[in-house]
Amino acid sequence: MEGVTPRAQGKIVTMLKEKLRADLSAAMKARDEVRTRTLRMTLTALTNEEVAGKQARELSDDDIVKVLQREAKKRREAAEAFAGAGRTEQADAERAEGVILDEYLPTQLSDDELAALVAGAIAETGAEGPRAMGQVMKAVTPQVAGRADGKRVSGEVKRQLAG
User: Fold this and answer.
1) pLDDT at 48
2) Residue 136 · residue 117 · CB < 8 Å
3) Burial class (CB in 10 A: 0-12, 13-18, 19+), 79
4) How far apart are CA 161 and CA 43, in angstroms?
5) Choosing a second label site near 63 at 20 to 30 A (CA), which of 101, 133, 142, 146?
6) 101 and 69 in contact (C-beta within 8 Å)?
7) In the structure, what pLDDT confidence band is assigned to residue 13 with cuts at 50, 70 and 90?
8) Which of 7-21, 32-46, 107-121 has the lowest mean pLDDT?
9) Ranked by mean pLDDT, which of 9-13, 27-31, 102-106, 119-123 comes out on top?
């Protein structure tokens, strides 16, 4: 296996995971504490996800994005909780970690783009009224995967079906 790194021997290492590892190394060299802490926690979450279940597995880039989204959501929720409790220093730290995680996530849809996708899904399914929300969500979710928070999507679907 000439030219293959020892880490890559025997298993396929995804590009995103390698980028995270390389960025962690660079952050450690630059003594960037926030980035180092964030990337370490993220890589730990990825490792935990790989060994969860009955059999260890290698995560695809799509799986890694899902873990990153989950981690980013945790940071947003923690920041809100800390801010609500008057602990601004911790809230700022959580927000800073969230900004770093956002760098590795797909670009989020704007409100106009999301509204257009939802309108298209409603037209495609012929859905009418709030009872058809599940039908519309089923159609629009694959289109927005990773590019919009589920809460935002369901809010927009509700708004358009009610109006």
Assistant:
1) 92
2) no
3) buried
4) 40
5) 133
6) no
7) low
8) 7-21
9) 27-31
Kindly list the distances between the CA atom of residue 81 and the CA atoms of 38, 77, 111, in Å, as whole numbers in the listed order.
Answer: 19, 6, 25
What's the fold here for domain 111-162? Answer: Arc Repressor Mutant, subunit A (1.10.10)
Helix segments in 52-127, DSSP class H: 61-84, 88-102, 111-125
CATH number 1.10.1510.10 is the correct assignment for the domain at 15-102: yes
CB-count exposure of residue 127 (10 Å: 0-12, 13-18, 19+): buried
For residues 17 and 35, give the distance between their C-alpha atoms in angstroms, rounded to a whole number. 15
Amino acid letter for position 46: L
Phi, psi of 45 (to 5 degrees): -60, -40
Radius of gyration of the chain (CA): 19
For residue 89, give the amino acid letter: E
Instruction: Indicate the pTM of the whole model.
Output: 0.71
